[in-house]
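Technical note accompanying the year-one report. For the benefit of new consortium partners, we illustrate the data format agreed upon in the data management plan: each record pairs a sequence with a structure-token string. No post-processing was applied to the example shown here.
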Amino acid sequence: MRTKIAAVALGGLLLALPAALARAEPPQKLYELNCWGCHGANGEGVKDTAPTLVGVAKFLKAPGGRSYLIEVPGVSYSKLSDAEVAAVMNWVLGNFSKQNLPAGFTPYTAAEVKRYRKIHLPRLAETRKHLLKEIAAESAGDSGGRDAPPRGFGARPLASSTAR
């Protein structure tokens, strides 16, 4: 009898699985559910709380900027899967910062997000300031000889990582 009940329960779960998988949210909906509260409906941000996402693709032009966009706490600690983070970040870049995307932009992948999420930025404000300085210098045409901030500058691996 127990075997029959277990088989029926397992069958029910297997029938429900395709429906659960089909409910995967599109990136815009994931943004609305996970990012909108701080960054706003149009990525405008909230002063002294969450920076604007409008023009955020400019970080892709600075050494270390691509990883920074994933390493920030709101992204690296989010409950979203690596694939969902990649989809949302690509959606944000395409919708709030399309004009700032560098030529030849390669969309984020789940594997790349997984690698970057292992980094914790204890000096977030300093790292952001450094990258913005790099971006300003690049915009002014002074691109000679600069590198990404040293790995010890505001970035360290997490003590433990969780499966995502």
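Partners are asked to follow this layout when depositing records. The first helix runs from residue 2 to 22.
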